């Protein structure tokens, strides 16, 4: 009986306490995204980075950070619909690996008559790690939020049923 009572207390407490676990995972995903784009944008190898792809990347980074922050505020208040946005953003982080980092890693530029890689192996591994960990944080935040939202919704329905009886 004590375990059941403790579970009910934890569920009832969720009505008054924010979902900080999901929210903090969103903040961590934003931080990792910042590290990713700082690593990418500080690179200046020849003129390879001066293309429309970088412009699109900048715009996407801004939109990503805005949407991830919005989702962090939504999940903080146990709004289940923001979990879908987090899944979408997590998938977007994985897709990004195959766009700019992979192209830069495979590209060669001539500087002073010598061919060089636009992005070396160490930088490539680092930026891929940033994107993968960011995606994992977003998906984990979404799963935690959905789980907590379902538990809170069920608890609130049981309270309504008790009041109605």
3D structure, described in words:
With 165 residues, the chain is mainly alpha-helical. The chain has 6 helices and 2 strands; from the N terminus they run H-H-H-H-H-E-E-H. Helix 3 (52-76) packs antiparallel against helix 4 and helix 4 (81-97) runs antiparallel to helix 6 (121-164). The mean pLDDT is 90.
Shape: elongated
- Fraction in helix: over 70%
Order of helices and strands: HHHHHEEH
Low-pLDDT sequence parts:
none
Distance between the termini: 22 Å
Q: Strands across the major sheet, in which order?
A: 1-2
Number of helix segments?
Answer: 6
Rounded to an integer in angstroms, the radius of gyration calculated over CA atoms is 21 Å
**Coarse structural class:** mainly alpha
Largest β-sheet summary: 2 strands, antiparallel
Number of strands: 2
What share of the residues does DSSP label as strand, in percent? under 5%
Mean pLDDT: 90
Write the layout of secondary structure elements.
Elements (H helix, E strand, L loop, with lengths): L1 H12 L6 H22 L10 H25 L4 H17 L2 H7 L1 E4 L2 E4 L3 H44 L1
Antiparallel strand pairs: 1-2
